[in-house]
Structure formats: C-alpha cells, structure tokens
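Progress against Task 2.4 (sequence-to-structure conversion) is shown through the following example record, which the project officer requested during the mid-term review.
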Amino acid sequence: MEERKYFKLFKDFPPMQHIQNLILVGTSHIAQQSVDDVKSAIQTHKPKVIAIELDKKRMDALLHTQRRKMHISDIKRMGVKGFLFNIIGAWAEKKLGKMVGLPPGSEMKTAIHLAKETNTLLALIDQDIHVTLKKLSKEMAFSEKLRLIKEILVSTILPKQKIKIDLRRVPSEQLIAKLTQRMKKEYPSLYRILVTERNLFMAKALYKIMNSYPQEKIVAIVGAGHVKDIAYLLKKEETW
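Structure tokens generated for the chain above:
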C-alpha cells in the first residue's frame, strides 16, 4: 500500500483499538496514565488472555530488581553495537522514569500482576530481545548508529524547537506521528528493525491468540507507537 494512503487510514485512530475479540491498549512505559489504562482495560473486559509487549528475557529483567551482571556471552548474542545500544537505551529510559517518579515498564508489571491475581493467561508477544539487538548490530547503518548515540548522549532526541510533553501521560496521536516521521526519515534502518519488523512479529502472535480463543476477549498492551500498525496488520492479515 502506498505510504500516503497508509497514513491517511491511521490519522484518526485512537490509542485503544477494538479488533474483533481483541482490545489493543497503547501505553507509555513511564506514564502513570498507562498504569491506570491497563488496570481499567483488564478490570472492564475481564479477558481470557492478557498479551504484553515483552519477551521472556525482558519480562524476567523487569520483574527482578537485582539486575544480573553482563557476560561475554551477552555480547556474542547481541553483537557489540547491539550490546551498547541496549545499555544506552536502558539508561535513557531509567533517567526519564526518575523524572516522573515511576519505574520504566510499570504498566507491564501491572498487567503481569493482574494476570496472576485473576488467574488469566499471560502471553508474551514480542520478538526475543537478543534477536532484535543482533539485527541492530548487523543491519543498522553506521551513520545512523553514530547519529543516534550522539543524540542520546547530548539529550537531543527531540527536535531543537521546544515541545511540551507531560511524561506522566501517553503522548498524543499528533506527537507520536511527528516523532515517528522523524525517526523514519533520520533512522530508516532503526525504524525498520525496532518498529516495522516487531509490529509484524507481534501482529502475527496476536492473530494466533485471537484465533485460538475466538469467543474470548483478549487485552494486548503495547507501546502507543505500535498500535496503528498492528491494528492495520491484523485487519489485513491476508496479505502476510
């Protein structure tokens, strides 16, 4: 589908999508609003399955406050650049979390705890983090890597003009679209690996779950920037 038409379809999409028996909830990993949205969605819909944007490794890391030490084997699995990208990304997310007084991934923790409390099936739908990081190390353009590291280190991820953002809330659709367009333009391979390919992976996982429990409700919790693409893919699954 032509990109212009693709975005026309998405421009008015809300951060929460209902697709057949799926409720797709878009979140920010450091926003109190997201914790509240997750609680509300699960308590309201009482789903058979709660699906979250995590893999087993990331879930284990999220649930254990005592971070394990990195080993040489981790560098081999991720690639040196993927390993460094993981460290820098975790540092940046932790710093933002401190600014709002909420640990990164609190909405995912909330979903996991509610799944246990209500004896609800929990599905991990994201691609293995080591696979993603290894792709970043091998396939991300060198110029993009240098530019990204520089931006992270000098804290200039956002454009130079000031943008007022309430980190306690999920970003608006307009802001998500603006940042997404910038990422696609300046970091095309990063966008492909972190967004496009993972969206397809998660959409396929959700499609299987939806068809395994066609008469049951499923609540899926993903980053707000993933909602539109996953919704589109699920509605157009015959093109896979």
